Amino acid sequence: NAGVTQTPKFQVLKTGQSMTLQCAQDMNHEYMSWYRQDPGMGLRLIHYSVGAGITDQGEVPNGYNVSRSTTEDFPLRLLSAAPSQTSVYFCASSPTWGGRGSTDTQYFGPGTRLTVL
Amino acid sequence: KQEVTQIPAALSVPEGENLVLNCSFTDSAIYNLQWFRQDPGKGLTSLLLIQSSQREQTSGRLNASLDKSSGRSTLYIAASQPGDSATYLCAVRGGNQFYFGTGTSLTVIP
Known about the structure:
The structure holds two protein chains of two kinds. Chain A is mostly beta strands.
């Protein structure tokens, strides 16, 4: 298994440009999520999905769109890039989205480092 | 809103020393707590997961404890090695979301 893969590894955008960060997992996981990691802020949840066709907002969703048409893929779209979106983006997946007793851990991709000029 | 804090932000110890990393959270209504390791320029790797009903979990030289009522968790690393140098993050799950701390950067000096 390749696990969780993300492309590209690095990207530089100009303000106002749009782009899609790709995320794929080959473990048949139900739950997928996107985080951004900024210095001194920790990881913050952008959007998540509990299954194909189901998405919801996390803590910092503004400026980002997601869709989940298949179990494997969960792309993150930046609609009009802003310098404030300069960050490292991580995609993660988890086998199921169980209840309170769940022991499912999250598996993280290697990240995409995005710079918006 | 859940707030997760990790102290200290950075820690440097000589090889062989035992050490403790701290994590605190403001809302005790959590499903579970996880400790992750992050190497520079890499993603996160899960180390230990403690369910809300558990008090501790152990894996090799790592032991994580959870005191839900006081909103605290500790990660104990025994006999530290230079290969343990990394950033350690804790995350609590509440409902459909995980909330992460800002991490403790650990350096183990040979």
